[in-house]
């Protein structure tokens, strides 16, 4: 009973804040509503027992993506009202595409069938969810079973980083950098010059 | 507690990975002045890993949950890849210095690309295959665009990146189909599940995987990128592209076709036969009109891939032995030719036209003689090594009754002899317009001489290569 109530609470707030995201006039408000939607979706994940997904949603989407949006909205001078012009014009075609997708999903769901051997070969890898939490199960999969793939993926990211730096970083010569050693090594003789100035005359 | 996986079979790979990271750190702390030292250390690391490979490979060992396999086949091809990388790295050192493009990332990226190739060779799972291929390709995309202020190099890098990503997409699509129908990505399990017959989805997926790997070895009809990338990329990088990634991707193709898809030979052999015929024909006819020697080498490599694919189309132990011998000889011929190309300088500028070789026999008799040896060998003229490479694949084809392949192979090598001999004609019978520079580096001369002598001497001692290729091929079929 309580579970159902909580579900409807989370679901209603998610839908309402999602509507606000696209209808709010102030883009900062839209991003804040987006964060609210993420938190409530995380709550929905918790209800179905996917605590890992809930954590990732909060950490990755709220912590990184939404904050990035906020930065973009606040730092860039974009006229969002102008972007929204012609919204109604595209509504019919967008609606039709949505309907087609929905119909296709219904078709797939209606005629779905597993290959007869598939559950046999897949089933052996799935741990019992009542014994092992899904964070634990995913951790085992990534860091134990697929340890090798995880390491190669790390190396690929390293190559991507080296490549980006190699192809784009240029040493700039037109900036003045601070050199502490040079500053400390300065003496009075380097920087101060004493001249006798005749009274009434300039240097 | 679960036990740690067995790291010993992957020792050469782990060594290369650690040395790449150590050299990267060294380079970051020492800045540009350490580049030459890092290049030398990278060559040493590759050669040392080459020594580790045979030590790590006893019989067939599988580790990391069945994703990584080490056997005689992988040891043979890994040694070839490491040799090719070490050779091309040594050739690059001189070039980088002369073009004032010395940056420590170059040897590090080459090491990481080599690591990717070794992981590809040892892949025993579709996921491991994909990740190894990506590690290799990503490093190669960056290397192709390494000369970032040159428009052609940037274009080559971008072209290679876009088309390579397309190939990766095809590979993933094919793999997902195979996984969807077979329920597993491990090569061993796939082989077992296909023994009783396959659904049509697996065949479609397999064709996609073949297409993606054919892209990586630049076989027709997936060759379009090759001439442009070879021409645009810096010459030492082109030399690297022409040898190491091809050997790695080829051995991956052989392992995938013979291993998990071994029971579907009648389904894939027609695809491979078509690719082989088309590559041989295009390699022979496409190169005739070329004036840029790097483009010519691109078409020549497409043709060579076609010849090597004959061995795969045959699909038995003798055929795979032919492939391995062909690849080994191809390595030495190409490394030598590119070393001569890298030595072609006029007033310090690198020349790429075939006409620039005019009169080389009078100005540089030794380079001209070496180049003549390489060209005769590529054309398949006995008694040079290239002849034996072709002989072993054609013999395998005739034994199994693939007469068409052998006949087309002989005919196209006659056609290709035209443009190989044209280079010799230009070198020996044309008058020099402007002489090429002398003294272009001891390292290059050594590599040229070493490979030329190896190709001439091969006739007298083919048995050592042939016997090790036999054991390697047997390892693939024994398991």
What can you see in these coordinates?
The complex is a heterodimer of chains A (203) and B (479). With 203 residues, chain A is mainly alpha-helical. Among the domains of chain A are: 1-80, NADH-ubiquinone/plastoquinone oxidoreductase chain 6, subunit NuoJ (Four Helix Bundle (Hemerythrin (Met), subunit A), Up-down Bundle); 128-168, no CATH class. Chain A has helices spanning 2-23, 27-47, 51-75, 80-83, 87-110, 118-123, 134-145, 147-168, 180-185, 188-191. Chain A starts with a helix and ends in a 12-residue tail after the last helix. Chain B is mainly alpha-helical and 479 residues long. Chain B has a domain at 264-478. Chain B is built from 19 helices and 4 strands. Chain B has helices spanning 11-30, 35-56, 72-98, 105-121, 126-144, 151-182, 187-193, 200-216, 225-232, 235-258, 265-286, 293-314, 317-342, 360-363, 365-379, 385-399, 403-429, 442-457, 463-478, and strands spanning 61-63, 68-70, 345-346, 349-350. In chain B, strand 1 and strand 2 form a beta hairpin. In chain B, 60% of the residues are buried. The interface between A and B is medium-sized, with 24 and 37 residues.
Name the features.
heterodimer; A: 203 residues; Four Helix Bundle (Hemerythrin (Met), subunit A); B: 479 residues; mainly alpha; two-stranded antiparallel sheet; 74% helix
Summarize the structure.
The complex is a heterodimer of chains A (203) and B (479). With 203 residues, chain A is an all-alpha fold. Chain A is built from ten helices and no strands.
How do the helices and strands line up, and which of them pair or pack?
The complex is a heterodimer of chains A (203) and B (479).
Chain A: H1 2-23, H2 27-47, H3 51-75, H4 80-83, H5 87-110, H6 118-123, H7 134-145, H8 147-168, H9 180-185, H10 188-191
Helix pairs in contact in A: 1-2, 2-3, 7-8
Chain B: H1 11-30, H2 35-56, E1 61-63, E2 68-70, H3 72-98, H4 105-121, H5 126-144, H6 151-182, H7 187-193, H8 200-216, H9 225-232, H10 235-258, H11 265-286, H12 293-314, H13 317-342, E3 345-346, E4 349-350, H14 360-363, H15 365-379, H16 385-399, H17 403-429, H18 442-457, H19 463-478
Antiparallel strand pairs in B: 1-2, 3-4
Helix pairs in contact in B: 1-2, 1-4, 2-3, 2-4, 3-4, 3-10, 3-13, 3-19, 4-5, 4-10, 5-6, 5-10, 6-8, 6-9, 8-10, 8-11, 9-10, 9-12, 10-12, 10-13, 11-12, 11-17, 12-13, 12-16, 12-17, 13-15, 13-16, 13-18, 13-19, 15-17, 15-18, 16-17
Domain NADH:quinone oxidoreductase/Mrp antiporter transmembrane (chain B): 123-415
Transmembrane segments (chain B): 6-26, 38-59, 79-97, 104-121, 158-182, 194-215, 236-258, 270-289, 296-314, 320-344, 365-389, 401-421, 442-461
Membrane topology (chain B): Multi-pass membrane protein
